[in-house]
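Researcher: Good morning. I'm working through a list of sequences from a screen, and I'd like to move beyond sequence-only analysis. For each chain I'm collecting a predicted structure so we can compare shapes side by side. This is the next one on the list. No need for commentary yet; just the structure.
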Amino acid sequence: VLERGQTRQGYLGLMGQPVTLSAAQAASTGRESALLVVGVVPSSAAASAGVLVGDILLALDGTSTVSPDDLLDLLATQSVGRQATLKLLRGNTAVDMPVTIGERPAR
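Model: Good morning. Structure tokens for this chain:
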């Protein structure tokens, strides 16, 4: 979305790396891989939503995320300020977490 002559890109403020799920996690989610949260930017959309280091991100609004590139591509299609749902695995429990898409900081 263009605003003030600039493209506003969706942003969550988390860092992730691909992870292979355990047999129990795969059985409960129906997936073999996902994105392990290895960092959360303070005061970011992810932090405000309650995302924690160690959570496993399965999907954003039902679309699977298995790599950082998947997440970046998905966020590029999201409007800043839009309500979305993160599907996380916290421990062995699936959690649906509401999040407001933030704006990627200027580089």
